[in-house]
What we know:
Radius of gyration: 22 Å
Order of helices and strands: HHHHEEHHH
Number of helices: 7
Mean pLDDT: 77
Structural class: mainly alpha
Number of strands: 2
Strand content: under 5%
Number of domains: 1
Shape: elongated
Low-confidence stretches: 3-9
Distance between the termini: 53 Å
Helix content: 55-70%
Amino acid sequence: LKTLEKGLERSIDFGYFGFVSIPFLYVMHFSHRFTSSYGIDIILLTILLKLLTAPLTHKSFVSMKQMQKLQPQMERIKEKFKDDKEKMNKEIMELYRRNKVNPLGGCLPMLLQFPIFIGLYNALLTPIELRHAPFMWIKDLSRPDWESLPVTLVGWHLGIPILTLLMGASMFIQQWMTPSAGDPNQRRMMMLMPLIFTFMFINFPSGLTIYWLVNNILSIAQQYLINRMER
C-alpha cells in the first residue's frame, strides 16, 4: 500500500502493539528483496530477535542456575521456619540478597516474548502480502499449518499439524534443558507448558509457529553452550 503513495498504509490498524508489528514488517520486507520467501524472512527475523535478546536470556539462565544451587538452603529455611511464614520469607529474601540472586530473573525472557508474540501475530495476519504466502509444504503462512495437509478419516476432514507438533517437541526439549528453581510443583507446571502451547498453536498462523519453533531451537543451542561453558 505504501508504494501507491496515497498514505493507504495508515489505514491498516495493527492495534496497541503496532509499534512492534510495523518494525517487524519493515525487517521482513527488507529481507524479502533478497530471499523472495516470507518463510525465510520470518526465520531471519527470529534469528535477529534472538541475537538482540541473547544477553537477557543468558542472564536469565544464570539466575535460574543460581536459584537451583540455593534450593537446599531454601529447603532448610522452610523447614526451620515452617510455623512462621513472615520470618521464613524474610530469611529467603536475605539468602537471595547475600548471593545476589534475583528470584524473578528467570521470568524476564518470557515477559519479553509477550509483546514480540502479539506484534508478530498482528504482522502476520494484517498485511495483505502475507496472505497465501507459501513456505515448504505450507500453502499460507497466515493460516494454521494443518490446513496445508488435509486428510479424510471416517468422513471427517482433518489436518496434520506437523509444524505445531515439532514446535511442541522443541519446547519440551527446551524446558527439559532449562534449570528449574527446585520447586517440584513449579517444575511440573513448566513441563506441562509444551502440551498447553501445542494445543494453543494448532489454530495459530503457520508463520507464528515457525517463529516459536526456530526460537526454541536457538534457545536449546544457547542453553547447550551455556551448560558446556559451566563444566
